[in-house]
Amino acid sequence: MIELKGIYKWVNTGNNRTFLLKDINLSIKEGEFISIMGPSGSGKSTLLNVIGMLDEFDEGEYVFMNEPVHKLKEKQRAALYKQYIGFVFQAYHLIDELTVYENIETPLIYQDIKSSDRKAMVADILDRFNIVGKKDLFPTQLSGGQQQLVGIARALIANPRLLLADEPTGNLNSKQGEEIMDLFSQLNKDGVTIIQVTHSEKNAAYGSRIINLLDGRVEK
Fold first, then answer.
1. Domain residue spans in the chain?
2. Residue from 71, 52, 73, 53 nearest 61 by CA
3. Secondary structure (3-state) at 25
4. Are 46 and 4 contacting, i.e. CB atoms less than 8 angstroms apart?
């Protein structure tokens, strides 16, 4: 599903080049549940953003679903992202001016899915996440755990094949965090490939494989 070969990403400041990712070689199969771990500043989020096509890289090759991402134009990459990838952020990234319902519906509008189909899909996921009663509330009226659920519902609404999660339980209490991780386990059993960035050993253990990063490199 994912092949990263010799991926480098750097920033230049004056005459200095700071490497964010160094010679990353990774193979991820469909159906895996991967946990990426490492200290702060090790490149975890950068790697996730490169995989999710939110960040570009400076050198190397990236093949996703047999498509050479490094050769695609931005528009083609965006189309690939919309079709296959869902993203869950630590800070939820919900739109405060939109209700729960509208937040979840947003990705479908970008995909030109017609109104009646959108209604059915949103109703279905509200039901699945037990948040039907919250659909007309705004994000600020929800607890952290509820906001994260809405964020995950939004990421899953378009049935992505790959779910990327950046510290998905970072702002939650332990019970809420456990519920989110159990949900991820279930999604993975249902066939969704998951890559999560986490500081938590406990959360990492939900994955089938742990990748450790240090100073932008994968530790062997």
1. 33-53+78-218
2. 71
3. strand
4. no
